[in-house]
Amino acid sequence: MLKNYDVIVVGAGHAGCEAANAAAKMGSSVLLITMNMNTIAQISCNPAMGGVAKGQIVREIDALGGGSGIVSDKSALQFRMLNMSKGPAMWSPRTQNDRMLFAAEWRYLLEQNPNVDFWQDMCTGLIVEGNKVIGVKTSIGFPIYSKSVVLTNGTFLNGLIHLGEKQFGGGRAAERASTGITEDLIELGFEAGRMKTGTPPRVDGRSLDYSKMEIQPGDENPSKFSYGNTKALTTQLPCYITYTNPETHDLLRTGFDRSPMFNGSIKSTGPRYCPSIEDKINRFAERDRHQIFVEPEGWNTVEIYVNGFSTSLPEDVQLTAMRKIPGFENAKMFRPGYAIEYDYFPPTQLKRTLETKLIENLYFAGQINGTTGYEEAGCQGLMAGINAHLKNNEKDAFILNRNEAYIGVLIDDLITKGTKEPYRMFTSRAEYRILLRQDNADIRLTPLAHKIGIASDEELERVNRKIQGTNELKKQFRQIGITPDQINGVLQEKDSALITQQIKLTSIITRPHISLDDILNVSREAKEAADKMHEIHPEIVSQTEIQLKYDGYIEREEEQAAKLTRLEEVKIPNDVDFKQLKSLSSEAVEKLTKIQPATIGQASRISGVTPSDISILLIYLGR
After folding, report:
1. Is 574 helix (H, G, I), strand (E, B) or coil?
2. What number of other Cβ atoms are within 10 A of residue 223's Cβ?
3. Which spans in 296-373 are helix H?
4. How many whole angstroms separate alpha carbon 617 and alpha carbon 613?
5. Strand 5-10 relative to strand 143-151: parallel, antiparallel, unpaired?
6. What is the rounded distance in angstroms from the CA atom of residue 84 to the CA atom of residue 77?
7. pLDDT tens, residue by residue, 161-196
8. Strand duo 193-199 + 338-344: pairing
């Protein structure tokens, strides 16, 4: 028999690893249950972390004491900062990763924490007393008890794999599905649904002709995810880009009658923003080509991930059509792509802490909540692990608002609006993109993480050096002048208006197309000040440039966020009977009763709740 634990985490994917890591770092005794110890932190689909909005989330996880950024840096094959031609709110870090090394680094990180125990078994159900979870049941047949349970089951709950006309149970290729939990939860009163995702074929890189593809190298001066002591890459592997063509599309269409996407076998909803190749050529019939990203799986393997060719067509159709893509004429397939359907639980059944409303001390994180993506799963696991620990120790819940983090946007979207298709984070989902940049996640979040005990004194000190150094450098730059002789050559080259007298350096830096580097190249005084601060903290100079250049926009968003915060501070008691508020619209009564918003701010974001409904609630609450 195993001992009693503070927190049991079921599932060892991205959400499960972050949940276990967070609770254990804060001092909880944690049991991580997985059906296969050899697939802990498996990168199930594309071997990459980050990207647009997702990269911001990885940096937020790192700033909050999570492991995804550290593991991504240690297993990276390539680093790219996306959207550098746009403003800093859109800059998004992304790594290409070694699949096996990523999993090994996560397992090593968890094994270094003495508070984490592991157990290889299938969790088949929950042990509930009254309305409180007190443990789990496993297939081996004995109970394991705990104060809290975090479910992070990924695509394994009654998972069903589709490959052409073939179907077989599984949560991932060559891995069995998980059974029992869905049935337990439905019996307890939870609402369940089905979702679908897919993956492309993997091929032998030795069989590809890269000379027919466009090379996609990493950044010349690569950065990294973690704010900590991980090292930036010095050697990188390239990716490649190629394209499908009308011949590819015609061959794919020959298998549509055997496609589970079109013959009715798959009835659930897949990710809108990551469609299968058959879905692409069906929905976008006017396009004669689609982009294919050719991505290496690791330093020491020839296996290649064919990003953009996700499919569940019969394997013979997959291979024949793929060989019409330039560079793939002689491609050898390691394994075909497939689709998978799995159970999820609409996340409107959760509180802001990711604890369920029906069963106390039970938390859901990751794809069980209807999300898609490693980063979305990881941040939910982190927040669930933190809040499970805090509640067990009778401490206040840890909640991030929409103006504080992309993580706050994601969780608020899920619990307030729910989702009927796999939810993916985009920058467009956030109202305060200029505040929620990837470069300032540590400034926003590490002080909060330190306060709850998951970030160290050293991490807080590093952030404080960055904040103080940035403020000092901004102050110095506001005092430094720049003359026409110094800067007019640069201004003329950049097609910017010339100056006729000495002006403050900060007046130049706010101009479009003028970078701080342009100024440092011509102003010795500014260069000496920047070099001194760079020695204190390497991110001070870039942080100073961003804050000076976008000062007006940042100030405007902070004012808007302050208005939102006032609504978030107006709490709605748990025992409000919305049906008794006769002036509310019938739709508002229905939605408010179902969602049970915790604040007026959250209530205002529920679809169907009008401004007049909010006014009525404020009057009722004495505001």
Report:
1. coil
2. 19
3. 315-322
4. 6
5. parallel
6. 20
7. 999 999 999 999 889 999 999 999 999 999 999 999
8. antiparallel
CA distance 139 to 123: 6
Side chain identity at residue 37, one-letter code: M
At 133 the pLDDT is: 98
Question: Following CA atoms 530, 532, 538, 544 in sequence, which dihedral angle do they give, to the nearest 10 degrees?
Answer: -30
Long-range (24+ apart) CB contacts under 8 A made by 548-555 are: 548/474, 548/477, 548/506, 548/509, 548/510, 549/509, 549/510, 550/87, 550/88, 550/434, 551/510, 553/434, 554/434, 554/435
137 CB-near residues (< 8 Å, 6+ apart) = 123, 124, 125, 126, 127, 143, 180
**Contact call for residues 117 and 33 (beta carbons, < 8 A):** no
Q: What is the pairing mode between strands 30-34 and 116-120?
A: parallel
Distance CA 366, CA 343 (A): 12
**Contact present, 260 and 338 (Cβ < 8 Å):** no
- 451, 452, 454, 460 alpha-carbon torsion, rounded to 10°: -10
Separation of alpha carbons 518 and 522, rounded Å: 7
Instruction: State phi, psi for 401 to the nearest 5 degrees.
Output: -85, 170
- Please report the domains of the chain, with CATH numbers, ordered by start residue: 202-337 (2.40.30.260), 457-558 (1.10.10.1800), 570-620 (1.10.150.570)
**Residue 342: what residue type?**
Y
- Identify the pLDDT of residue 1: 59
**Mean pLDDT for all residues in the chain:** 96
- Sole residue written with tokens 């009654």: 158
